[in-house]
Design brief:
By secondary structure, the protein is α/β, with parallel strands linked by helices. The chain has 9 helices and 5 strands.
Length: 201
């Protein structure tokens, strides 16, 4: 049964595989899009509901200039320690889950796409009518993190290694978008998958 009366598409894939690129295209095609990572950014701001509990849990070393949480500094702590990553997610996920639920409920578009790197692990995949997984090669992930986010090789390796293997996501997918080639190749795959989705809804 559609979730809140919407066709819900779960969009996932490992870090730097290109989920945001696909999400932008789906927005242009007419979907209502939700970016879970953007919601995490929002709840970690000074006035956000996760700011105080995250600061209490991980201490003042995660703060940057002006007292904002430095997500890069926080990432260096949690992505090298699975127990600390789980603890961060225990704080963030219930808050984000509520916000996502409200957005889906209030969306006017009939198709909602939820972009979440932890779509499967968080249980959201079970609510989705379709699961789309974006893939690319590991070295492309590393290159994009270093080139676009100015990460060191060590930081990039740590982020990639902290995630479940891509195969675990692919095994749950209805649609796999290969983002290892030219942007036009990715866009063509997305357009084709969207047309199939529209026929089935």
């Amino acid at each position: 049964m559609p979730y809140h009366g919407k066709t819900l598409v779960g969009l996932t894939g490992n870090i730097a595989c290109g989920k945001s690129t696909v999400l932008r295209q789906l927005r242009k095609l007419g979907a209502y899009t939700i970016d879970a990572d953007a919601l995490i950014h929002a709840i970690l701001r000074k006035d956000g509901p996760a700011y105080a509990p995250v600061l209490e849990e991980f201490g003042p070393d995660i703060l940057g200039e002006g007292g904002d949480i430095d997500r890069r500094a926080l990432g260096m702590i949690v992505f090298s320690d699975p127990a600390k990553l789980r603890r961060l997610e225990e704080i963030e996920h219930p808050i984000v889950r509520k916000l996502i639920d409200e957005e889906i409920k209030n969306a006017r578009e009939p198709v909602v796409v939820l972009d979440a790197i932890k779509l499967i692990e968080s249980g959201w995949a079970d609510k989705c009518d379709a699961i789309w997984v974006i893939t690319c090669q590991r070295e492309q992930q590393i290159d994009r993190l270093m080139r676009l986010r100015n990460y060191s090789r060590h930081e990039a390796d740590t982020r990639v290694n902290a995630q479940a293997p891509q195969e675990a996501k692919v095994n749950r997918a209805n649609t796999v978008i290969d983002n290892s080639g030219a942007l036009s190749y990715t866009r063509n795959q997305v357009a084709k998958a969207w047309r199939v989705l529209m026929r089935e809804t």
